Protein backbone atom coordinates (compact mmCIF):
# COMPACT_ATOMS: atom_id res chain seq x y z
CA UNK A 1 0.00 0.00 0.00
CA UNK A 2 1.11 3.53 -0.78
CA UNK A 3 0.44 6.45 1.53
CA UNK A 4 -1.20 9.35 -0.27
CA UNK A 5 -1.90 11.71 2.62
CA UNK A 6 -2.16 11.23 6.40
CA UNK A 7 -4.32 8.11 6.93
CA UNK A 8 -5.21 7.68 3.22
CA UNK A 9 -3.63 4.69 1.48
CA UNK A 10 -3.85 3.36 -2.04
CA UNK A 11 -4.07 -0.38 -2.70
CA UNK A 12 -3.18 -2.22 -5.92
CA UNK A 13 -1.29 0.68 -7.49
CA UNK A 14 -0.82 -0.99 -10.89
CA UNK A 15 -4.55 -1.65 -11.18
CA UNK A 16 -5.26 2.00 -10.31
CA UNK A 17 -2.79 3.26 -12.94
CA UNK A 18 -4.25 0.88 -15.54
CA UNK A 19 -7.77 2.18 -14.82
CA UNK A 20 -6.62 5.79 -15.10
CA UNK A 21 -4.79 5.07 -18.39
CA UNK A 22 -7.86 3.47 -19.96
CA UNK A 23 -9.97 6.53 -19.08
CA UNK A 24 -7.68 9.36 -20.22
CA UNK A 25 -6.84 10.62 -23.68
CA UNK A 26 -3.84 8.95 -25.33
CA UNK A 27 -2.02 12.30 -25.46
CA UNK A 28 -1.94 12.53 -21.63
CA UNK A 29 1.45 11.84 -20.10
CA UNK A 30 1.63 8.38 -18.52
CA UNK A 31 -0.02 8.48 -15.08
CA UNK A 32 2.13 7.66 -12.05
CA UNK A 33 1.43 7.31 -8.36
CA UNK A 34 3.99 10.02 -7.58
CA UNK A 35 2.13 12.48 -9.85
CA UNK A 36 -1.11 11.71 -8.03
CA UNK A 37 0.55 12.22 -4.63
CA UNK A 38 2.19 15.47 -5.76
CA UNK A 39 -1.18 16.72 -7.03
CA UNK A 40 -2.94 15.86 -3.76
CA UNK A 41 -0.19 17.34 -1.58
CA UNK A 42 -0.27 20.60 -3.56
CA UNK A 43 -3.66 21.31 -1.93
CA UNK A 44 -5.09 18.41 0.08
CA UNK A 45 -8.06 20.49 1.27
CA UNK A 46 -9.06 21.04 -2.36
CA UNK A 47 -8.35 17.54 -3.68
CA UNK A 48 -9.77 15.31 -0.94
CA UNK A 49 -13.50 15.03 -0.26
CA UNK A 50 -14.48 13.46 3.08
CA UNK A 51 -17.98 11.93 3.07
CA UNK A 52 -20.33 9.73 5.01
CA UNK A 53 -21.91 6.59 3.56
CA UNK A 54 -24.60 8.76 1.92
CA UNK A 55 -21.89 10.76 0.07
CA UNK A 56 -22.65 13.84 2.17
CA UNK A 57 -19.59 16.00 2.73
CA UNK A 58 -18.45 15.84 6.38
CA UNK A 59 -15.35 16.53 8.45
CA UNK A 60 -12.46 14.09 8.26
CA UNK A 61 -13.38 12.85 11.76
CA UNK A 62 -16.91 11.86 10.71
CA UNK A 63 -16.03 10.42 7.31
CA UNK A 64 -16.54 6.82 6.24
CA UNK A 65 -15.55 7.39 2.61
CA UNK A 66 -13.07 9.58 0.78
CA UNK A 67 -12.83 10.64 -2.85
CA UNK A 68 -9.33 11.77 -3.84
CA UNK A 69 -8.87 13.76 -7.05
CA UNK A 70 -6.12 12.09 -9.09
CA UNK A 71 -5.36 15.21 -11.12
CA UNK A 72 -6.39 13.35 -14.29
CA UNK A 73 -9.55 13.82 -16.33
CA UNK A 74 -11.45 11.36 -18.49
CA UNK A 75 -11.97 11.94 -22.21
CA UNK A 76 -15.07 14.06 -21.45
CA UNK A 77 -13.08 16.35 -19.18
CA UNK A 78 -14.48 15.04 -15.89
CA UNK A 79 -11.99 14.59 -13.02
CA UNK A 80 -11.09 11.03 -12.09
CA UNK A 81 -11.17 10.22 -8.39
CA UNK A 82 -9.96 7.40 -6.18
CA UNK A 83 -12.63 5.97 -3.89
CA UNK A 84 -11.43 4.86 -0.45
CA UNK A 85 -13.31 3.42 2.53
CA UNK A 86 -12.52 3.75 6.24
CA UNK A 87 -11.47 0.60 8.07
CA UNK A 88 -9.52 0.52 11.32
CA UNK A 89 -8.93 4.30 11.22
CA UNK A 90 -7.36 4.12 7.74
CA UNK A 91 -8.90 4.93 4.35
CA UNK A 92 -7.92 2.37 1.73
CA UNK A 93 -9.09 1.59 -1.76
CA UNK A 94 -8.30 1.12 -5.41
CA UNK A 95 -11.37 2.19 -7.37
CA UNK A 96 -11.10 4.90 -10.03
CA UNK A 97 -13.92 6.86 -11.66
CA UNK A 98 -15.90 10.07 -11.88
CA UNK A 99 -18.12 11.17 -9.01
CA UNK A 100 -21.11 9.62 -10.81
CA UNK A 101 -19.37 6.29 -11.45
CA UNK A 102 -18.05 5.96 -7.90
CA UNK A 103 -21.28 7.21 -6.34
CA UNK A 104 -23.35 4.70 -8.30
CA UNK A 105 -20.98 1.90 -7.27
CA UNK A 106 -21.33 2.89 -3.61
CA UNK A 107 -25.10 3.09 -4.03
CA UNK A 108 -25.28 -0.55 -5.14
CA UNK A 109 -23.49 -1.56 -1.94
CA UNK A 110 -25.48 0.55 0.55
CA UNK A 111 -28.84 0.65 -1.26
CA UNK A 112 -30.72 -1.31 1.39
CA UNK A 113 -29.52 0.91 4.26
CA UNK A 114 -29.96 4.44 2.89
CA UNK A 115 -32.36 6.58 0.90
CA UNK A 116 -31.38 6.27 -2.78
CA UNK A 117 -32.60 9.78 -3.66
CA UNK A 118 -30.50 11.26 -0.87
CA UNK A 119 -27.37 9.71 -2.40
CA UNK A 120 -28.26 11.08 -5.85
CA UNK A 121 -28.84 14.53 -4.33
CA UNK A 122 -25.50 14.36 -2.53
CA UNK A 123 -23.73 13.27 -5.74
CA UNK A 124 -25.15 16.32 -7.51
CA UNK A 125 -24.07 18.55 -4.64
CA UNK A 126 -20.53 17.12 -4.82
CA UNK A 127 -20.34 17.66 -8.56
CA UNK A 128 -21.61 21.22 -8.33
CA UNK A 129 -19.47 22.24 -5.37
CA UNK A 130 -16.17 20.51 -5.89
CA UNK A 131 -13.67 22.95 -7.47
CA UNK A 132 -12.46 20.94 -10.45
CA UNK A 133 -15.81 19.32 -11.02
CA UNK A 134 -17.55 22.70 -10.85
CA UNK A 135 -15.29 23.96 -13.65
CA UNK A 136 -16.40 21.01 -15.79
CA UNK A 137 -20.10 21.53 -15.00
CA UNK A 138 -19.84 25.28 -15.59
CA UNK A 139 -18.05 24.67 -18.90
CA UNK A 140 -20.69 22.16 -19.95
CA UNK A 141 -23.48 24.64 -19.06
CA UNK A 142 -21.77 27.34 -21.13
CA UNK A 143 -21.57 24.98 -24.11
CA UNK A 144 -25.28 24.18 -23.67
CA UNK A 145 -26.11 27.91 -23.62
CA UNK A 146 -24.05 28.43 -26.82
CA UNK A 147 -25.89 25.55 -28.53
CA UNK A 148 -29.23 27.10 -27.55
CA UNK A 149 -28.17 30.46 -29.05
CA UNK A 150 -27.11 28.74 -32.27
CA UNK A 151 -30.52 27.06 -32.54
CA UNK A 152 -32.47 30.33 -32.24
Give the % helix: 40-55%
- Number of helical elements: 6
Q: What class do helices, strands and sheet pairing give?
A: alpha+beta
Mean pLDDT: 85
The main pleated sheet reads as:
6 strands, mixed
Quaternary structure of the protein: single chain
Write out the strand line-up for the largest beta sheet, numbering strands in chain order: 1-2-6-5-4-3
Q: Give the strand content.
A: 15-25%
Distance between the termini: 55 Å
Q: N-to-C SSE series?
A: EEHHHEEEEHHH
User: How many runs of DSSP E, i.e. beta strands?
Assistant: 6
- Please mark out the parts with pLDDT under 50 across 5 or more consecutive residues, or reply none: none
Rg (C-alpha, Å): 16 Å
Task: Describe what this molecule looks like in 3D.
With 152 residues, the chain is an alpha+beta fold. It contains 6 helices and 6 strands, in the order ββαααββββααα.
How would you sum up this structure in a few lines?
This protein is α+β, with helices and mostly antiparallel strands. About 45% of the residues lie in helices and about 25% in strands. It has a 6-stranded mixed β-sheet.
Amino acid sequence: MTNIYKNIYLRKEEEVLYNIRKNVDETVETPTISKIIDYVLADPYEHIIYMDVKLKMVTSYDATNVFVDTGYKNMSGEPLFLSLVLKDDVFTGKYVGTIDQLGNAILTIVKMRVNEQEIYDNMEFLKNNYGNYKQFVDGWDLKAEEREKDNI
